[in-house]
Structure formats: C-alpha cells, structure tokens
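Hey everyone, long-time lurker, first post.

I ran two proteins through the pipeline my lab uses and got sequence/structure pairs for each. Pasting them in order. The first:
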Amino acid sequence: MNKNEPESDYSPKPMDTQATLLLFVKILIAGGAIAGAIWALDHFGI
C-alpha cells in the first residue's frame, strides 16, 4: 500500500473544481427559474 495515493485523491484539481462550480451555478439558476415559475403561476393564477 502506497501512503501517497490516498493523499493525492484529496488534492484539488483545477478543472474538477471549475466543473463543480459551474454545475453548482447551473443548479442554482435552474432551481431559481423553477421556483420563479412556480411562484408566478401561483401568484398570477395562470
């Protein structure tokens, strides 16, 4: 067993971090759009 292997898994990779942030932002935007649509439907009684 190599002791360095588990530690290498924890080191952040720039591309992975960027992809995770983009995914998080997309989920936030999608969630906000869905919530806004539901609110509008409820508020205006469409």
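...and the second, right after it:
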Amino acid sequence: MRHEIAVKIQELKNRIGHISDCRLRYGIVATASGSSNITGSTTPDHVDHRLGAFFVQEAQLVGIDLPRKKLINLLMHDEQHLRVIIVLGMARLGKTTLAKRVYEDPQIVGGYFYCHAWTNVPQPFNLNVLL
C-alpha cells in the first residue's frame, strides 16, 4: 500500500514538473486575481458570465456540432505550427462554451498537441500583459 502511494506521489511530481516546464517554455505567468482577505483566500471583484461554459450540460447545447468540427479541423489539419483562431460573436451566444468543447474534445486532449492550457481572459484586458 505504501509503495502504491509513493508511486502516485512521484507521478504527481512528474506531472507538476511537466506543467511547470510548459509554463516556462511558453512564458505563462501565474497571477492571482481578486482581493485577499485575512485568511488568504481570494474573492472575485465581479462575476464573469463566461464561467457558465464550465457547467453547461451536453444535452443543452444546440447547433454546436458543426462549429466545433470546423474549429477542430482548423487546429489539426493545417501545416502552421503556431496560429491564432478568433471566435467572434455577440455577448452570451456561446463562444466560450464552443471554445471549451473544442478544448475538451478527445481528438485535442488525446495527444495531438504536446502541451495545452485553458485560461480565462479578464474583461477588459491588456493585450501586452496577456501575452
């Protein structure tokens, strides 16, 4: 039993090391948002309506299959190694939900990309700080 726990701990350490390497390689800087209280936890300054994308049930999604397939095709079948794909639309039409479904797709998660990360972009944002 102890050996199994030790193996799991080592696997977690390896995963953390890999994530840290990716973070450094791609210049991702971890920052805390919100204000700190006495206990050290953070509380958001406002509620981000895009967080709803994390809680939408698959059965509630209508008309997302074709756009999801198109985005996956753009990501996987192009010779360019670095690219930016912009998803535009009016507020609350499902852009974040669509992007999250593409990000979670088994083709994407299943190893097509060496490293991937999901980040929430605050509104409004500073492009220089974000990059």
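Reply from user beta_strand_b:
Welcome! Quick read of the second one: The mean pLDDT is 72. The first helix runs from residue 2 to 25.
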